[in-house]
């Protein structure tokens, strides 16, 4: 494939992340918060600690991590109706918030958390692709800060970040923006840990199946991309 054919709409190299920044303390009342910017995508992630657990966990000596996800009406090109006004969440919203919750529960020892619940709210301010991945990456920072706030840092067992990869006209690429995501031949989301673990992989072929070799190239790109996200998380926690 020629160099011209491999050019991405953004001009980025195939293995290049979008610019990432994380700002902590944005939500002053929350036990932990992080405003994460990944290119044009911006998500406010807050962690709220409550001294109670769901009924099914009462008196079991362990805590719980849950999540909620939502998009502001003008986070996208056209105004979306608030889900509260419709009276129900979309299937997409429910699927994403369950993914966020699963991803963050996988990095916490719920016994060491004690009988308390941490709710991670991920509100998309601006969407330009990869909102679920940005939510997971930012929510991990908010969670780490909240655990430090309540003196339960020892409950954190892993560092977690997420990134999208896909097969496009430019080949296999890392960290898709909206233009690439909406036209990708295959779209995958990788939730990985800093020590090389895999929490979840979501992958979909749009028009034809992709091959095993292509999947492993996407995984290679995801490892590169999350390594940079881990660095960004560490930097902001060291300076917070």
From TrEMBL:
Keywords, sorted A to Z: Nucleotidyltransferase, RNA-binding, rRNA processing, Transferase, tRNA processing, tRNA-binding
InterPro entries: ExoRNase_PH_dom1 (IPR001247), ExoRNase_PH_dom2 (IPR015847), ExoRNase_PH_dom2_sf (IPR036345), PNPase/RNase_PH_dom_sf (IPR027408), Ribosomal_Su5_D2-typ_SF (IPR020568), RNase_PH (IPR050080), RNase_PH_bac-type (IPR002381), RNase_PH_CS (IPR018336)
Pfam entry (one): RNase_PH_C
PROSITE patterns: RIBONUCLEASE_PH
Function statement: Phosphorolytic 3'-5' exoribonuclease that plays an important role in tRNA 3'-end maturation. Removes nucleotide residues following the 3'-CCA terminus of tRNAs; can also add nucleotides to the ends of RNA molecules by using nucleoside diphosphates as substrates, but this may not be physiologically important. Probably plays a role in initiation of 16S rRNA degradation (leading to ribosome degradation) during starvation.
Family that this chain belongs to: Belongs to the RNase PH family.
Name under which the protein is recorded: Ribonuclease PH
Species whose genome carries this gene: Gluconobacter cadivus
């Amino acid at each position: 494939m020629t160099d011209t054919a491999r050019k991405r709409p953004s001009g980025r190299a195939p293995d290049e992340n979008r610019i990432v920044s994380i700002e902590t303390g944005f939500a002053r009342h929350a036990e932990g918060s992080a405003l994460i910017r990944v290119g044009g995508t911006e998500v406010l992630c807050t962690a709220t600690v409550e001294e109670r657990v769901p009924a099914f966990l009462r008196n079991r000596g362990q805590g719980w991590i849950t999540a909620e996800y939502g998009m502001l009406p003008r986070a996208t090109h056209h105004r979306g109706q608030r889900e509260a006004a419709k009276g129900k969440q979309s299937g997409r919203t429910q699927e994403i918030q369950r993914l966020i919750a699963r991803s963050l529960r996988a990095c916490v020892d719920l016994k060491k958390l004690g009988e308390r619940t941490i709710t991670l709210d991920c509100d998309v301010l601006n969407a330009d692709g990869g909102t679920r991945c940005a939510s997971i990456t930012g929510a991990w920072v908010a969670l780490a800060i909240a655990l430090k706030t309540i003196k339960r840092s020892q409950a954190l067992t892993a560092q977690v970040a997420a990134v999208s990869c896909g097969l496009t006209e430019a080949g296999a690429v890392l960290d898709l923006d909206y233009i690439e995501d909406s036209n990708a031949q295959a779209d995958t989301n990788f939730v990985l840990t800093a020590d090389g673990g895999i929490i979840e992989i979501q992958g979909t072929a749009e028009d034809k199946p992709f091959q095993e070799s292509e999947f492993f190239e996407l995984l290679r790109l995801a490892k590169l991309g999350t390594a940079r996200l881990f660095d960004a998380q560490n930097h902001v926690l060291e300076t917070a």
